[in-house]
Every structure is written in structure tokens, then in C-alpha cells.
């Protein structure tokens, strides 16, 4: 009976989707015997509305005034499933919805438990409201507004951050091949109008940002220079300062509470609504300029992109126009892109009941960003921004095969993370990396590089970057495969995003120049791999690497650090006799050890002998961040240089990571490290005697750690209490909470929490009506010393 229900549900969904899809993709293996009518992969083609609000003629940016604004948001018809259920049909097809729910609903546990505050605003922590002028690229302002908010909320930027909306908009429509050349031939082609006025949406923008097109600082492509007749140099396409890590697409109609949680965690979300405004300072049928409130209750449509930075459950319905008031209280706080002359310094309120938030197509977008220095290279084949969904049976897999080529020195790279994109919710994933493929048509016909697959679960539709905790080293020219296996707890079909060539409406075309041997799909665990090139499809899998620094080859024996006694015996009596203690102890990782090397001289001829080299001393940390550690040691006179070693926990021995060939060069900066992670270092000096290296004693081992990421603090008031919560910080030993009655100073430590699983704290007995200020920092104890993260953003709360 249950299988019969599932069959009916899936057929109903497919009939609905077929009605919306403008072209057929390719046939694949049947998903199940019961669903033979559903054995075509799903494809969602987003059709842009040809809105009359989109101005296709070039205009100039105006000064801050009340001139007409071009909206420029192109509505998509993509339906985002609720995180508590799988795909639903059109809201008008209630029977289809009921069938889907009956067949596939299962309990979803919210990411964060606890009550949400009745009101919240990140307005005070965000940059000034931007002004898009009379160009129609609100979609770029909304996406980058959410990106800026995420950087601020994570402590990686402050209110001065300003990302270039022009750079994103220009290179969205003017494709450039990625630096590795893997997307050569891929392009997004504008079919009408110009890039500044044709419009866009957050769905397509997600995959542009995922390809590392954006985000650059404003100074690199100032918005004031925007003009159709003023093209940008292609070198700016990937000249970014920040990169997208994750993008979550959330159904605003069904998952309102989750949207609020995302605003608290990331500072803002991007969304869209329909506006009837033509100037920044006027009453309209739906906008009240006195109360800065807006409510539209007509047929669902959108034409303007915004960021939402807060809410108020008690915002009175009486604040809206008398002739057009919602039934209940409550509104979203919107950060617009029309400058500060509109609304309350650029902000206004939209009713919870606005039609924009009550459709199966209503969406909120989280754009989670990090600094661009996190990774050096992005291996990818999906060079367009189109949106296509494809099906897998539970435990089916997708894979991309890449060739390592990113290090400009021709040296090794460290595979640090991979990413994928899902048109599904609540999906379990398993990631494995392979190299030395024996069959180019089988991504798993090789050596598995991870001791155990990287596993986890997703919650939302969207794009996910998954850091690899286990180090994977890639050699120049080496082929490697990234394999992602997807499943769901109810064993239902899963859907992933792919890239392909198609035309969307009559305004945009996507071209994906896929090639044989790049991207593969395996419908189920027992199926064979299929090269998706035969259907012109590329899985949206990416691999991110860090370039490893080249090690200078000083002499032949330097190529092998572990000299042996047997090699020493081969030296002639006439040569300097360097007796090197075997480094088996060196490789144990014991912090208390001291490795020595005794230098013996031929007493009959010591005219060319160097003075005995001393033990390297004074090794300390000069600087540390979330991704770098800079160490320093005392200079030795008369030496040729120094060798720096870092302990490799996988190989369980010290590995040489750098050679300084100048005696005065007594620092080393270790880059690209993981936050909140312990690292061990030691250094030894060397000189040359008759062309051979003579070493001094190693320094005492220095054990330290990178700083943790800055905590993200969320706070609200309830019953004369301040309730604090924060996300768990990777690598933290504990947390310290500080409180003050004034923002600028006077902070006292309120609480030290030494258990890493505790990420909440309640301060009671506070004075009602008074404002308190809180901040938080994480710490890690290394060798009895606390290493602190930066403080969280200061949060103010008025006690209720």
C-alpha cells in the first residue's frame, strides 16, 4: 500500500514538473519498477518573466533623489521544498500536495532549538544602505548585501566592507574562462537588452558566485563607473577578495521560523517582492511613507530584490495603509538598495502577509562567504549559472574527474574541500577522493585517499562546501576523482543540480561545453557509472586546493632528510666525517625530545672546518590567525640557513616544510592552516662544509595552534533575562562571556564555559527596560596556555 502511495505521489509530481519544463533532458536508468513513467531525469528551467518594469535602455546613475528606480528582478518559478517534507506540486494542486506528504513526510529536527525572540534586527551592524540608482541590478545588490552581512556576522569584516555589485553583474553576463581553464567555452549569453538593465535573480546568482565570479572589493570596479559603453577588463573576473562557501535556499511560506534563524546567524537573507513604487518618497496603493511600511495583497509576482535584516512579530497592522491593511500584526525589516532617502534611512517594513511570502515560489537566500585566501584553486566544469535538477536513487553517486594543475610552481597541492549542489532537502552525503585511476570511465577504479569517507547531512536546497579534515596531497598532472554519494533516511529519490546548455525564456542562454571523461553519474549503488557528457551535463561538483610551497633542493643528500649510518660510512677518510644520528626519534612527535647531531672533524686537516653549530633557540610564535602561524627564532652567526619542520599527524613524523637560505632570515609563516588546530614546529640551523651540509641541534619543539573562528553571538530578552546562544566553534576548548552596561567599555568577564558542548547561557535578574551589552570569545588551551579567538560582534539587548 505504501509503495502504491509513493508511486501515485511521484507520478503527480512528475506530471506537474513536465508541465513546467521547456525541454526534455536525457533518459537514464529507471528509478524503480513501480515508476517506469518517471525514468527521465528532472530538469527545472527557470523562466524569466518579461516584466514591463525592466528598462532595456542605458541610463546613468543619479544622485540621491526621488527619481524612478528600475527594479530588475526576474521572477523564477522554482519551487523549493520545505525542510520538513519532499517535493510539493503547485499550491493550486492540493491533492498532489497531500499525496506527496502522505508518501514522504518524516520528522525534521530543527538545527537550533529554543524560542525565537519576538523581534530582531541586525541593522546597526550592517554597512550603510547602497544606492543602485536607475540601473536594474537590484539582484546583485541583494546578493552581495547578504554576503556582506555574513562576513560581518562571522567576524571577518566590519561595517566598512563594500563589495562590488558592478563586478558581479558585469561578469555574470560577460563570461570569462576560469584561471585553470576547465570552463573554457562555458558562457552565459544575454539575448536582449543590456546587462545593467535586463535583470537577474538569486537562483542564477548562486552558481555565478560559486564559480568564484565575485566578490571583489568596490574599489576594483566602482559602481559609479557603471556604463554599458565602459566594459571591465577580463582580469577582474576572478580578482576576488571573498568567496561563496554555502548558499541555502529556503521556502519562506513553509519555513518562516528557519528564515528567522538564518537572519540571526548570518545577519541577513536575500529575497524579492513586488513593488508599485516609482520614486523613493511617495505614497502608493501599497506603501505608507510615514510609517515606512508596505503591504501588497494582489496576485503573486516579484520585481525587486531586497535583503531582509530582521523582523517584528508585534509590528502593528495599523501601520499600513488604511485601505489596504493586513489582518494581523508582524513584518519583516527590509534593507533596500535605493539609498537612504527611501524609508527609514533606507530600511522599511513589509507585512508578513504580503503575497511575496505566501507562494510555493517564495524564497529566502543565505549567501555564506569567507575570505578568498582560504583556498588557492577552484577545480570546476560547471561554468554557467543555469539551473537543472537531476535524479538519483538513494545511495546513487555523482563524480567529477580533475587533473591537478593549479600550482604555478608545478609543485604539489593540498585538496582542502569539495562542494556540490542539491535540489533537495535533508540529504545525507558521503565523500571519497580517488587517484591513480585504472579506468578513465570509472571514477572509483583507483586508490581511495581518505581513510574513511567524509560524511554529513544537509538541510536546505542549495550549494554546500565541505572541508576535508584529512589531508590529501595532489601531484602536478595527477588525475583525481571526487565522488559524492547521496541518500535520504526514507530511501527516496534524491535530486542534484547539474549544468547543461539551454535557453531560458527569450532573455538568456547558458552554454556548458562539457567533454568526455569529466562528469559521471551512478544511479544506485549497484549501477554502472555513466559519462554525462553524452547528454551534455556536468555535475556541480568542485574541488578546492591550496598550493604547497616548493622545497629548495640544496644538495643531493638534502633530497632525503633521513640520512643513515650506512650512507655516512661511504664517505672517504679525506672528506669531512659527519656522523648523523638516525632520525627515527625525530619522527616520533615527542614534544620533549631533543634531536642532536655530533660533528666529528679530521684532526689532521681542519682548515676548512666551520665552527660547531649551536642548537637553535628562542623559537616562539610571533603571530597567529585563523589560517596562519608565524614563528621566529634567534639568529645564529656563521650559518648558511635554517630548516623548518612541522609535525604531520597522519604520517606521524616531522616533515620539512621550508628552507631559509639566509642566516638573517629567522621567521617562517605557515599559511593555509585550519582554524582552531594544534601544530608543532622545530627548527635547526645548517652550514656547508666541503659542499656538504652540517647541522646543529633542533630547537625545542614549539606547540601552538591557529586561532579559532570568531564566534557568532545571538541574544534576545525574555522574562528579565538575556538569553545568549552561539554556534559551536571548531577547535575551541571553551568560551568566555563578557557583559557591560555601556557599549564602549567597562566589560567584565561574566562566565567561563569549559565544556565545548555548551553553546547557550542565560543571564538572569537583569533590570527591566535597561540595555546591556554582551560579547563572547572562544579559547583553546595548548600546553597550559589559552589561545583566544577574536571577540564576537558586540550585541545589545534591552531587557523585557
From TrEMBL:
One Pfam family hit: Peptidase_C1
Gene Ontology BP, a term: proteolysis
InterPro entries: FN3_dom, FN3_sf, Ig-like_fold, Lectin-like, Papain-like_cys_pep_sf, Pept_cys_AS, Pept_his_AS, Peptidase_C1A
Xref: SMART domains: FN3 (SM00060), Pept_C1 (SM00645)
Disordered: annotated segments: 555-591
Keyword hit for Cell membrane: no
PROSITE patterns per record: FN3 (PS50853), THIOL_PROTEASE_CYS (PS00139), THIOL_PROTEASE_HIS (PS00639)
Gene3D superfamilies linked: Cysteine proteinases, Immunoglobulins
Record domain Fibronectin type-III: where: 707-800
Keywords noted in UniProt: Hydrolase, Protease
Family, similarity comment: Belongs to the peptidase C1 family.
PANTHER family: CYSTEINE PROTEASE FAMILY C1-RELATED (PTHR12411)
Record-given protein name: C1A family cysteine protease
Amino acid at each position: 500500500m505504501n509503495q502504491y502511495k509513493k508511486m501515485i505521489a511521484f507520478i503527480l509530481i512528475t506530471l506537474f514538473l513536465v508541465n513546467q519544463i521547456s525541454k526534455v533532458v536525457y533518459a537514464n536508468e529507471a528509478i524503480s519498477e513501480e515508476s517506469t513513467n518517471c525514468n527521465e531525469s528532472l530538469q527545472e528551467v527557470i523562466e524569466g518573466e518579461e516584466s514591463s518594469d525592466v528598462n532595456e535602455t542605458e541610463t546613468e546613475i543619479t544622485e540621491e533623489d526621488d527619481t524612478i528606480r528600475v527594479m530588475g528582478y526576474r521572477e523564477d518559478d522554482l519551487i523549493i521544498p520545505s525542510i520538513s517534507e519532499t517535493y510539493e506540486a503547485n499550491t493550486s494542486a492540493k491533492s498532489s500536495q497531500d499525496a506527496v506528504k502522505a508518501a514522504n513526510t518524516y520528522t525534521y529536527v530543527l538545527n537550533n532549538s529554543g524560542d525565537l525572540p519576538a523581534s530582531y534586527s541586525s541593522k546597526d551592524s550592517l554597512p550603510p544602505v547602497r544606492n543602485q540608482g536607475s540601473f536594474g541590478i537590484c539582484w546583485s545588490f541583494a546578493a552581495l548585501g547578504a554576503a556582506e552581512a555574513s562576513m560581518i556576522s562571522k567576524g571577518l569584516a566590519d561595517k566598512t566592507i563594500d563589495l562590488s555589485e558592478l563586478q558581479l553583474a558585469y561578469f555574470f553576463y560577460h563570461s570569462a574562462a576560469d584561471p585553470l581553464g576547465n570552463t573554457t567555452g562555458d558562457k552565459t549569453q544575454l539575448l536582449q537588452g543590456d546587462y545593467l538593465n535586463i535583470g537577474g535573480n538569486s537562483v542564477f546568482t548562486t552558481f555565478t558566485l560559486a564559480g568564484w565570479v565575485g566578490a571583489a572589493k568596490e574599489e576594483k570596479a566602482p559602481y559609479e563607473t557603471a556604463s554599458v559603453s565602459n566594459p571591465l577588463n577580463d582580469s577582474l573576473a576572478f580578482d576576488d577578495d571573498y568567496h561563496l562557501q554555502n548558499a541555502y535556499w529556503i521556502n519562506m511560506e513553509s519555513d518562516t521560523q528557519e528564515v528567522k534563524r538564518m537572519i540571526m546567524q548570518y545577519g541577513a537573507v536575500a529575497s524579492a517582492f513586488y513593488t508599485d513604487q516609482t520614486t523613493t518618497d511617495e505614497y502608493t496603493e501599497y506603501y505608507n511613507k510615514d510609517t515606512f511600511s508596505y503591504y501588497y495583497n494582489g496576485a503573486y509576482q516579484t520585481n525587486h530584490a531586497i535583503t531582509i535584516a530582521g523582523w517584528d512579530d508585534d509590528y502593528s497592522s495599523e501601520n499600513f495603509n488604511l485601505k489596504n491593511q493586513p489582518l494581523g500584526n508582524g513584518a519583516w525589516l527590509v534593507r533596500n538598495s535605493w539609498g537612504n532617502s527611501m524609508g527609514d534611512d533606507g530600511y522599511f517594513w513589509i507585512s508578513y502577509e504580503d503575497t511575496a511570502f505566501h507562494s510555493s515560489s517564495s524564497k529566502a537566500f543565505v549567501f555564506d562567504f569567507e575570505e578568498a585566501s582560504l583556498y588557492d584553486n577552484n577545480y570546476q566544469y560547471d561554468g554557467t549559472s543555469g539551473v537543472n535538477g537531476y535524479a538519483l536513487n538513494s545511495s546513487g553517486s555523482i563524480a567529477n574527474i580533475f587533473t591537478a594543475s593549479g600550482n604555478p610552481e608545478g609543485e604539489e597541492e593540498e585538496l582542502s574541500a569539495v562542494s556540490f549542489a542539491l535540489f533537495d532537502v535533508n540529504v545525507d552525503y558521503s565523500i571519497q577522493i580517488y587517484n591513480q585511476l585504472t579506468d578513465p570511465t570509472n571514477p572509483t577504479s583507483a586508490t581511495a585517499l581518505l581513510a574513511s569517507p567524509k560524511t554529513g547531512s544537509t538541510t536546505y536546497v542549495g550549494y554546500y562546501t565541505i572541508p576535508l579534515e584529512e589531508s590529501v596531497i595532489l601531484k602536478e598532472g595527477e588525475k583525481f576523482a571526487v565522488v559524492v554519494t547521496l541518500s535520504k533516511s526514507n530511501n527516496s529519490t534524491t535530486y542534484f543540480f547539474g549544468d547543461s546548455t539551454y535557453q531560458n525564456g527569450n532573455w538568456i542562454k547558458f552554454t556548458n561545453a562539457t567533454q568526455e571523461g569529466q562528469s559521471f553519474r551512478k544511479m544506485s549503488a549497484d549501477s554502472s557509472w555513466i559519462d554525462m557528457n553524452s547528454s551534455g551535463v556536468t555535475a556541480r561538483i568542485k574541488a578546492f586546493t591550496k598550493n604547497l610551497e616548493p622545497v629548495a633542493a640544496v644538495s643531493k643528500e638534502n633530497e632525503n632528510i633521513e640520512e643513515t649510518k650506512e650512507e655516512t660510512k661511504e664517505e672517504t677518510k679525506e672528506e669531512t666525517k659527519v656522523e648523523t644520528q638516525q632520525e627515527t626519534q625525530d619522527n616520533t612527535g615527542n614534544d620533549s625530545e631533543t634531536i642532536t647531531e655530533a660533528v666529528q672533524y679530521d684532526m689532521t686537516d681542519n682548515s676548512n672546518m666551520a665552527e660547531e653549530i649551536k642548537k637553535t633557540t628562542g623559537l616562539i610564535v610571533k603571530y597567529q590567525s585563523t589560517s596562519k602561524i608565524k614563528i621566529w627564532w634567534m639568529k645564529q652567526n656563521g650559518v648558511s640557513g635554517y630548516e623548518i619542520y612541522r609535525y604531520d599527524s597522519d604520517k606521524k613524523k616531522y616533515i620539512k616544510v621550508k628552507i631559509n637560505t639566509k642566516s638573517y632570515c629567522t621567521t617562517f609563516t605557515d599559511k593555509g592552516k585550519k582554524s582552531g588546530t594544534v601544530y608543532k614546529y622545530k627548527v635547526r640551523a645548517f652550514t656547508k662544509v666541503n659542499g656538504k651540509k652540517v647541522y646543529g641541534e633542533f630547537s625545542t619543539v614549539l606547540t601552538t595552534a591557529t586561532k579559532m573562528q570568531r564566534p557568532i553571538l545571538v541574544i534576545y530578552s525574555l522574562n528579565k533575562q538575556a538569553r545568549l546562544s552561539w554556534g559551536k566553534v571548531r577547535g575551541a576548548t571553551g568560551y568566555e562571556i563578557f557583559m557591560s552596561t555601556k557599549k564602549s567599555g567597562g566589560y567584565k568577564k561574566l562566565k567561563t564555559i569549559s565544556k565545548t558542548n555548551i553553546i547557550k547561557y542565560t543571564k538572569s535578574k537583569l533590570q527591566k527596560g535597561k540595555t546591556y551589552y554582551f560579547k563572547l570569545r572562544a579559547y583553546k588551551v595548548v600546553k597550559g596556555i589559552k589561545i583566544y579567538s577574536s571577540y564576537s560582534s558586540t550585541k545589545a539587548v534591552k531587557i523585557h
